[in-house]
Structures are given as C-alpha cells and as structure tokens.
Design goal:
Layout lengths: L7 E6 L7 H9 L4 E4 L8 E5 L2 E5 L12 E4 L4 E2 L1 H13 L8 E4 L3 E2 L2 H9 L1 H6 L6 H9 L12 H21 L8 H16 L2 E2 L1 H10 L4 E4 L24 H7 L8 E7 L2 E3 L13 H8 L12 E3 L1 E2 H11 L3 E5 L9 E10 L2 E3 L7 H4 L2 E8 L16 H14 L3 E5 L7 E3 L6
Parallel strand pairs: 1-10, 1-11, 2-5, 2-10, 5-7, 6-8, 7-9, 11-15, 14-16, 15-19
Antiparallel strand pairs: 3-4, 12-13, 16-17, 16-18, 19-20
Helix pairs in contact: 3-5, 3-6
Bound molecules: guanosine-5'-diphosphate, 6-O-phosphoryl inosine monophosphate and magnesium ion.
Guanosine-5'-diphosphate binds next to α1 and β3.
C-alpha cells in the first residue's frame, strides 16, 4: 500500500461502521511507521485478532499490536482519559508495551464526566441510539468554544474556568432533560487531577510529529472510526455521529495538510450492517435478519448491541467512494456469505416509479424506497482458506467483480475470516 509516492493512507469505513477497519489497519500497519486516529472517540470498537487473542480497541490506534509502530491520537478525537488508561492497562496485561510509542494530541478535547451524563440522559441521544460515550456533548462544547483540551490540564486556573463553564452549561441542559443528577465543579476538578500526570506524559503536538515523520519518508496510516454514512455532513443526518468520519476529516483531525493525504482505502462488509436508529434501505426482514446476525456474529464491539443487517448496497458504497475519493476498496467478511444460496446487491432505490442511483440528502425519499436488487448465485463452499483471488470460487469472484464495477473502485483486499492471515491482498507484498 505504500511506495515512494504513496506515504500516507487513510482507512475509512464506507458503510455505517464496523466494517473491519481495525483488522485492515492491523494488517497494513505491518508496513507503516505511524498510525493515527483522527476523529471519534470511545464510541469506536475496532477488533484485532492475533492468534487466539481478540483485542477490541476503542481509542488506541489498531497499529499498536506491532511493537515498532508509533501510534497517535489526533486533535480531532474526543478523548476519554479513564477509558484510555484502562485500554493501555489491558494491552500491558496482554504483553503489549506502549511505552514511548503512544502519543495524544495536546489539542484533543476531553470527554468530561458531565458529557457522558448528558449523552445518557438525552432523549435525542436515545432516539439516535448513541453509544452513550459522551461523544456528541463533547463535540458540542468544542464547537461552542467552551471545551476542555488536553493542554488545559497544564494550567489549573484556566482549567477551573473552563470546567465552571462546562458544568454550568451541563446542569442547565440536564435540568431541561428532567434529569435529577447534576455535575459539580469540585468533583470534576478532583476527577481531572487524578488523570492529569498520566495523560500529560503522553501529550504532544501530534500534527508536528507527523509532519516531521513524513519529511523523513515515514509511512503513515490514518485510521478512521465509524463509517461514511455516520459522517456529520455526509451521513444519514440526524442519525449520525458528531464528527467528519470521511477522508476529509483525516487531515483536519490528524493535524496535517490535505495535500499530505495520498490514498484512501474504503472498508466494506460483503453485506451491510448498522447499529442504532436511522435508514438502512437493504435491511433484512425475518428470518434472514436473525440468520445473518448469527452467521456474521453481528453484535457491537463497544456496546454489545445487535447490529441490523442487510444486503450490500452499491448506492451507499458508490456515494462513499465519491465523498472519500476512495482509491482502493477492502471487502471484509466474504466468508459470512459462504453458505447462502442466493446473494443480492442493491443497485438503486425505486421511489414512486423512478429509480434513484444516487444516495439522497433528504431521508424522506428513503421512507418509501424499494431497493432494486441484482441477484447472484451463492458459492456454497468455504472461502476461509483462500489466499488469492484465483483460489476463490468462481461465483464469489463474479460477486466481487460486480461490486468493483458498481462502486467504481478497485478491490485491493478481501478478508475471509477474523484472523490476520485470513486476508487476500491484491498488491504484491501487502500481506
Ligand atoms: P471496525 O469497527 O470497522 O474495526 O469493525 P469491528 O471490529 O467493530 O467489527 C468487525 C467484526 O468483524 C469484528 O468482530 C472482526 O473480528 C470481524 N471480522 C473482520 N473481518 C472479518 C472477516 O473477513 N470475516 C469474519 N468472519 N469476521 C471478520
Ligand atoms: P466503529 O469505529 C458503528 C453509531 C451509534 C449511533 C450513532 C451516534 O467501531 O465503526 P455516537 O455515540 O457516536 O454519538 O452515536 O453512531 N456509532 C457506530 N456504529 N460503529 C461505530 O464505530 C460507531 N460509533 C458510533 O450506534 O447510531
Ligand atoms: Mg466497530
């Protein structure tokens, strides 16, 4: 994935999240010097399997399993320090040392206890089905210019002023939500004092570090969280997360120039899933819903919630290819389709007799949309041990060829199982 002219690669989810970004980043990080998370926070759950061990990363980049790789949490991330420390401690228990190779942007905003309280109490959050990690309220405070950044921990006087503003706002909002719990300035300051030294030891100017690394020819992976359809601007608003999950957010959130982004890999499942509320045009009915959820083990890596499943939606992925400028596509979980007799790809939405092939901005259009499907014969044999395109059953290759054609993006990876080695890499030397 990296060569002399391609030193940076953004990895984005091209559906509604949980596409297998963690696995792809882990595999590609073998060749990288740095991996940077650029948005979101502990709402993400990125699964990496190494041997028999399964690790779910929430804020730490998925390159951390490679001892030589440096990992950074960029300014665009909203950081939950306690969760970060428990993640670090978990890695250390698994024998993974992060000392001296994990950095946190001093510009990153902190998720405060009152942000989580607000996310939990808000009926709007419930309607969207948020992860309850305080993500939306933290980004709200960031945009309202009363957020607390990592660097504020260095200045207790300024910190207290910011906390006072944050607590006052939170308590006003909690009262409006009819929530009885209130945030408290002193309690918040005590909680912050407990995380300050450990967090400041990781704090750095991440954008500057990446800039310098790129100048020396380093290969940098930028790890997106969530998926393109959860992007605050391009996703199924308001059923979205609160950050720019798409590739444009990578430059902003890592603190590097847009011209420093060289390639963008979109990760897609061979079908579609979504957690939480909002449109999912190809959603299965029963009994297919339960069958696919079981076959794909579709339960959220962060909240354990069942994921909603549907057929592959080429309208969605073609849209994601456009807004992200995808240069490559990785198709994951092909093995989950192994036993199916027939498999469908959605190529458009039928609305009042018209077929729409572009994803609409107005969700009202989707309310009465009927997906238009192309049907394919299943391959009904295991792909789990296939390690080259040629080794895949013919029907699986036909299916992938059609995805490539409809999404106007070349497929560079096909994943056929949870393990690192269960990967077909179409570029020599990638896996
Ligand atoms: P992420 O948020 O995009 O990193 O994805 P998650 O980790 O939330 O969800 C992807 C799930 O699919 C994880 O449980 C992975 O272990 C699993 N997975 C990834 N690739 C494959 C694959 O090719 N086949 C199968 N069966 N599972 C996979
Ligand atoms: P990864 O990185 C799937 C969804 C939530 C909810 C909406 C808003 O593992 O792919 P938030 O807590 O962000 O305010 O919730 O976004 N969501 C995800 N869905 N994968 C994720 O992350 C998600 N992060 C948030 O379910 O619908
Ligand atoms: Mg996930």
């Amino acid at each position: 994935m990296f060569d002399a002219s391609r030193r940076t690669l953004v990895v984005v989810g091209a559906q509604w999240g949980d596409e297998g970004k963690g696995k792809l980043v882990d595999v590609i990080a073998e060749r990288a010097d740095w991996v940077v998370r650029y948005q979101g926070g502990a709402n993400a759950g990125h699964t990496v399997h190494i041997g028999d061990k399964k690790v779910v990363l929430h804020q730490i980049p998925s390159g951390i399993m490679h001892p030589g790789v440096r990992c950074a949490i960029g300014n665009g991330v909203v950081l939950d320090p306690e969760k970060l420390f428990s993640e670090i401690d978990g890695l250390v228990r698994d024998g993974i040392d992060v000392t001296g190779r994990l950095y946190v942007s001093e510009r990153a905003h902190l998720v405060m206890p009152y942000h989580k309280l607000m996310d939990g109490a808000s009926t709007a959050s419930k309607a969207i089905g948020t992860t309850g990690r305080g993500i939306g309220p933290t980004y709200e405070d960031k945009v309202a210019r009363r957020g607390v950044r990592v660097l504020d921990l260095r200045n207790p006087v300024r910190l207290r002023t910011l906390v006072e503003a944050g607590v006052a706002n939170a308590n006003g909002r909690l009262a409006l939500m009819n929530c009885d719990t209130r945030a408290d300035v002193d309690e918040t300051m005590v909680a912050l004092a407990q995380i300050t030294a450990r967090l400041l030891a990781l704090a750095d100017d991440v954008g500057l570090q990446i800039h310098r690394a790129l100048k020396t020819g380093a290969a940098v992976l930028l790890e997106g969280a969530q998926g393109s359809m959860l992007d605050i601007d391009h996703g199924t608003y308001p059923y979205v997360t609160s950050s720019n999950t798409t590739a444009g957010g990578a430059a902003i959130g890592a603190g590097i120039a847009p011209t420093a982004l060289h390639a963008v890999l979109g990760v897609v499942k061979a079908y579609t899933t979504r957690v939480g509320a909002g449109p999912l045009p190809t959603e299965f009915g029963e009994p297919m819903q339960t069958e696919m959820r079981t076959l794909g083990n579709e339960f959220g890596a962060t909240t354990g919630r069942p994921r909603r499943c549907g057929w592959f939606d080429a309208v969605v992925v073609r849209f994601a290819a456009r807004v992200n400028g995808l240069t490559d596509l990785a198709v994951t979980k092909l093995d989950v389709l192994d036993t199916l007799q027939r498999i469908a790809i959605c190529t458009g939405y039928m609305v009042d007799g018209d077929v729409h092939t572009e994803f609409p901005a107005d969700l009202a259009l989707l309310e009465h949309a009927e997906p238009v499907y192309e049907w394919y014969e299943g391959w009904q044999q295991s792909t789990a041990d296939c390690r080259s395109l040629e080794a895949l059953p013919r029907n699986a290759r036909l299916y992938l060829d059609r995805i490539e054609e409809l999404c106007e993006t070349r497929i560079t990876f096909v994943s056929v199982g949870t393990r690192r080695d269960q990967m077909i890499g179409m570029e020599a030397g990638v896996v």
